């Protein structure tokens, strides 16, 4: 419903929710510069959102789809922020090894999602669906596609490996430094994804996106105390 670069930029909103939840559940006190960083991040998100709305006129996505997609991304960051704060709380409190934390999350995540695939096979999703049956998920169709195109299996294995190392590195950063630092480092890959998207022609260039991304980086820098 939106572009890859906008998705990455809007993920920057996780700093806002991670900061607020850190105050509420970890008892952390935010400095003035961190509150300012949160405000600047909000401004950056608004600019990126406006760039998205502007680009919807000359791309395949309708205005309603862009708005829905962007809102879903921001809502998802609340869930991600809760996960980050809980991870920080548990790895500090129980001194959990990062690999054990990632393995436990992966194990339960696999079981829960495998069970959810059953009802998702029957739930109609309309325009949200990406399969011929127009349901939320079609696992049988997915296996059929993998059978016909083995390259998909290779891409899936690459994705699994990438996420495994990414999560291990992320939890290691959370344990050694903090959840917020992890989020700041995570947001830096946005630039790479945006550059690749432009290079291969997946999206068109918009000046507002540069401004929005710049403001988001300033917000992240302020929050993390880089101005010092």
Helix/strand layout:
Elements: H1 4-10, H2 14-25, H3 32-55, H4 63-93, H5 98-120, H6 139-148, H7 150-176, H8 179-187, H9 189-199, H10 207-223
Helix pairs in contact: 1-9, 2-4, 2-8, 3-10, 5-7, 6-7, 7-8
Describe the structure.
By secondary structure, this protein is mostly helical. The chain is built from 10 helices and no strands. It has helices at residues 4-10, 14-25, 32-55, 63-93, 98-120, 139-148, 150-176, 179-187, 189-199, 207-223. The protein starts with a helix and ends in a 5-residue tail after the last helix.
Low-pLDDT sequence parts: none
Shape label = globular
The rounded Rg comes to: 19 Å
Q: How many helical elements?
A: 10
Keywords: Membrane, Transmembrane, Transmembrane helix, Transport
GO molecular function: transmembrane transporter activity
Protein name: Solute carrier family 35 member F6
GO cellular component, one term: membrane
Observed structural traits:
transport, 75% helix, 10 helices, single chain, transmembrane helix, mainly alpha, transmembrane transporter activity, 228 residues, SLC35_F1/F2/F6
In short:
By secondary structure, this protein is mainly α.
């Amino acid at each position: 419903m939106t572009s890859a670069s906008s998705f990455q930029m809007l993920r920057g909103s996780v700093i806002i929710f991670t900061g607020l939840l850190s105050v509420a559940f970890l008892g952390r006190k935010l400095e003035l510069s961190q509150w300012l960083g949160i405000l600047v991040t909000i401004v950056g998100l608004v600019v990126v959102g406006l760039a998205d709305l502007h680009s919807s006129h000359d791309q395949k996505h309708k205005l309603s789809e862009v708005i829905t997609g962007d809102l879903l991304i921001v809502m998802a960051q609340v869930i991600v922020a809760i996960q980050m704060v809980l991870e920080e709380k548990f790895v500090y409190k129980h001194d959990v090894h990062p690999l054990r934390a990632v393995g436990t999350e992966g194990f339960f995540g696999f079981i829960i999602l495998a069970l959810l695939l059953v009802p998702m096979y029957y739930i109609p999703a309309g325009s949200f669906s990406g399969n011929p049956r127009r349901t939320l998920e079609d696992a049988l169709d997915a296996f059929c596609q993998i059978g016909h195109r083995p390259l998909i299996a290779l891409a899936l294995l690459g994705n699994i490996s990438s996420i495994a190392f990414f999560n291990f590195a992320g939890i290691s950063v959370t344990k050694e430094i903090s959840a917020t630092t992890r989020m700041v480092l995570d947001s830096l890959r946005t630039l790479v994804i945006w550059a690749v998207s432009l290079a291969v022609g997946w999206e068109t260039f918009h000046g507002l996106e540069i401004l929005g991304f710049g403001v988001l980086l300033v917000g992240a820098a302020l929050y993390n105390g880089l101005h010092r």
